[in-house]
Design a protein that fits this description.
Elements: H1 11-31, H2 37-48, H3 56-63, H4 67-79, E1 83-87, E2 95-99, H5 101-109, H6 113-121, H7 125-147
Antiparallel strand pairs: 1-2
Length: 148
């Protein structure tokens, strides 16, 4: 019989350790641009639709972050001149977030970051895609179960 209460047998620990390791790979790369990893994630969402201005709550849903975590990130990105926050013209209770020209331009400057991170993992493209798909499936399944 095997003992399931061993650290190295825990999928949660493997995910946690891998997440920390990947964040450590990102840190020096993003430091070059004055970004933290969470700020980079916010920008990734905004770069997907550069002419849109999602609301803070829409950004939070996409990133799976609450407004208490997201608001300080947006405040720092705004202070850095990368995003602008403004009240929605249709509903003043909603705050929209848009890219500035500097925020748009930064996309081109960080273009090689994903490739550098992928190289640091030692995995091939197909392996990374399969890993991402598995992790996404786990996340989606857990969130669906929580909503039931």
């Amino acid at each position: 019989m095997t003992d399931d209460l061993v650290l190295r047998r825990q999928a949660c620990f493997a995910l946690y350790a891998a997440s920390r390791a990947l964040t450590d790979v990102y840190r020096p790369m993003l430091d070059e641009f004055g970004l933290t990893y969470p700020q980079y994630l916010v920008l990734l969402v905004l770069w997907e639709h550069p002419d849109d201005a999602p609301t803070v709550s829409e950004l939070g849903a996409e990133l799976r972050l609450d407004s208490g975590t997201l608001s300080p990130l947006l405040k720092r990105l705004e202070a850095a001149g990368l995003v602008v926050r403004r009240r929605s013209a249709r509903d003043e209770r909603r705050v929209e977030v848009g890219l500035t020209e500097a925020g748009r331009a930064l996309r081109e400057q960080v273009r090689d970051v994903p490739g550098r991170v992928a190289q640091a993992t030692g995995l091939g493209r197909d392996e990374l895609v399969a890993l991402r798909n598995t992790l996404t499936r786990i996340t989606d399944t857990i969130h669906r179960q929580k909503e039931q």
